[in-house]
């Protein structure tokens, strides 16, 4: 049975300990609705691992393996190898890691698993910092965001580097299906999970998820902020299929990045000059995507 | 000289604040799927969303966007809050297109 196009059953149960309004928990709920019962999840440590399995309880209704910070993709590879030995071709294997786990710490294991051509879906849930240990900056933290390790000082105003382009690094491995998705567009997230799971090889999703304490936002604004990120091109929704990029939702009329930044405490130190700089960064990144739209930009090796 | 506590005294002191050693299953395997349902997060709430049944147009937007799966579809198709699990984030209140959801401070 479905409710407004989504599976009615929950595979990520209530009672989990995520903060009220957590975007990452909402993403997991929908990822699991899309993937369904015949799924095994390997999850890196991070908020979602901690809030979903307060021993001896679990929010998961599918087999789920707790992994170290570094090795969710390697564990998923092992699960796939075991399923192959059993002749099981039906079961989905999904590895999930936060941005810290995916962009930084488990990056090597991710690269290894996709390079080996393992059939599995890797999902990086990106809340732009190491939230579970108290908001440290990661390779995915948005430029000029204040975190505990990139504080908004008088001389250095927050994080000084751009976001690591992980989806493109993954696409460069020759992966058949890479996409960005967001809790702002749940039908799009569902479609991408299901499309990725049909591919006979490695696939990758980069999922945008607001974090309440990490972004210093009100718990009711999770979806509004996620929508604003799409409308301002801060987080464009696209897919790279067979090496060709296509947008799956393009804002009708582009909004100014400032309208996104002012909703969040992590950007409250920004001066008009910095806001302008960020607008330039977002415009340049989006122009790059538009530049490669519809062209074959990555080899597909699997 | 400071009086040394006996082993028993020390342990009884601990037991007042600590439930005792945790016994783990082999491999720390958890065998009951969805068992976080035993833990009711409803008492986390500061704000309480209330869905006005007569105004609900059965669109399901609140249901889809709740991070805690704390909204249920009732037999007549309208949506209702499961206060055992609702944490009061008010995402549903913000998103309802016909303003059928309002909120107040939770009265404990
Ligand atoms: C090797 C290692 N280093 C550090 C930690 C501590 N640690 C646990 S979760 C976490 C942060 C996770 O960040 P992210 O992957 O972005 O997930 P989030 O909590 O933001 O969802 C850290 C640093 C660890 N478990 N293992
Ligand atoms: S700290 Fe952020 S990511 Fe972690 S449970 Fe809370 S809202 Fe979710
Ligand atoms: S307030 Fe939040 S937790 Fe409660 S029903 Fe609404 S969306 Fe769900
Ligand atoms: Mg994170």
Give an overview of the whole structure.
- The mean pLDDT of chain A is 98.
- Chain A is globular and about 60 Å long.
- Chain A has one domain (2-292): 3-Layer(aba) Sandwich (Rossmann fold), CATH 3.40.50.970.
- Chain A has an eight-stranded mixed β-sheet with strand order 4-3-5-6-8-7-9-10, sandwiched between helices. In chain A, strands 1-2 form a two-stranded antiparallel ribbon.
- With 302 residues, chain A is an alpha/beta fold.
- In chain A, helix 1 (23-35) packs across helix 7 (186-198) and helix 3 packs parallel to helix 5.
- The longest helix of chain A is centred in the last third of the chain and has 21 residues, at 272-292.
- Chain A has helices spanning 23-35, 47-52, 72-85, 99-105, 107-115, 166-171, 186-198, 212-215, 222-231, 258-261, 272-292, and strands at residues 2-3, 6-7, 39-43, 64-66, 92-98, 121-126, 177-182, 203-208, 237-241, 244-249.
- In chain B, a hairpin with a 5-residue loop joins strand 2 and strand 3.
- Chain B is built from three helices and four strands, in the order H-E-H-E-E-H-E.
- A two-stranded antiparallel sheet of chain B has the order 1-4. Chain B has a two-stranded antiparallel ribbon with strand order 2-3.
- Chain B is of the alpha+beta class and 108 residues long.
- Chain B is elongated.
- Chain B has a domain at 42-108: 2-Layer Sandwich (Alpha-Beta Plaits).
Helix and strand element order of chain A = EEHEHEHEHHEHEHEHHEEHH
Count of alpha and pi helical runs of chain B: 3
**Largest contact between chains:** A-B, 42 and 40 residues
- What is the CATH domain class of chain A? Alpha Beta
Mean pLDDT across the residues of chain B is 89
Instruction: Calculate Rg of chain B over CA atoms.
Output: 22 Å
Low-confidence runs of chain B (pLDDT<50, min 5 residues)?
none
CATH superfamily of chain A: Thiamin diphosphate (ThDP)-binding fold, Pyr/PP domains
Strand order of the largest sheet of chain B: 1-4
Helix proportion range of chain B: 10-25%
SS class of chain B: alpha+beta
> Helices and strands of chain B, in N-to-C order?
HEHEEHE
Mean pLDDT of chain A: 98
First CA to last CA of chain B: what distance? 49 Å
Strand-residue proportion of chain A? 15-25%
Number of beta strands of chain A: 10
CATH architecture of chain A: 3-Layer(aba) Sandwich
The name CATH uses for the topology of chain A is: Rossmann fold
